[in-house]
Amino acid sequence: MGKDRLGRPIAYVHAKEHIKGQHPLESKEKLIILFIETARLLIEPPVEEGTAIIDMFHIGFQNLDYQHIRFMINAMQNYYPEALGLGLVLNASWTFNTVWNVIKSWLDPVLASKIHFVKSSKELAEYINRVFFLKRLGGKQMDFKLRPPTKEDEALVKFFREDK
Fold first, then answer.
1. Percent of the chain at pLDDT exceeding 90
2. Peptide bond before 46: cis, by omega within 30 degrees of 0?
3. For the CRAL-TRIO domain, which residue ranges apply (predicted)?
């Protein structure tokens, strides 16, 4: 999704698309590692870090999965400690403050110092050029909508898994 103002690749995370219990924890853990490893491939020297924008737009209690969050934090702190250059939490409601206080207690102070709350597109523009904003934020990047797998998608995945 482009690069931030310091040249770090940007990854948008749409928290409302995560539904607690929808998928097995092991699958989500594998996806997190795949995501981090893929992001590492997008980094071009001399840049060694990435930027994550965690969009909290329209999240509810069904989206908060402490086990999932703890795994992400553990992976970042213990296995990829220098991978995150900047974490931007966008559109967090005032009710998220209680949740954030719990999450922040799990964070190493160095990682916590990289997390910033952004309340508006104007604030986001301090970190990211507007051309790399999603369309719904006034930018040029396409808005994503989760599309569940079709029967054809599932058949293709089954074919790949059975192919020895």
1. 38
2. yes
3. 1-145
pLDDT over threshold 70, residue 147: yes
Residue 1 located in a structural domain: no
Number of neighbouring beta carbons within 10 Å of residue 3:
18
- Percent of the chain whose pLDDT exceeds 70: 99
Number of domains in the chain: 1
Judge whether 129 lies within some domain: yes
The rounded distance, in Å, linking the Cα atoms of 119 and 123 is 7
pLDDT of the residue at 146: 66
Side chain identity, residue 16: K
Instruction: Examine residue 2 and state whether it is found in any structural domain, yes or no.
Output: no
CATH number, residue 48: 3.40.525.10
Range of the domain at 111: 10-162
pTM summary value: 0.80
Number of Cβ within 10 Å of residue 121's Cβ equals: 16
Q: List beta partners, residue 107.
A: none
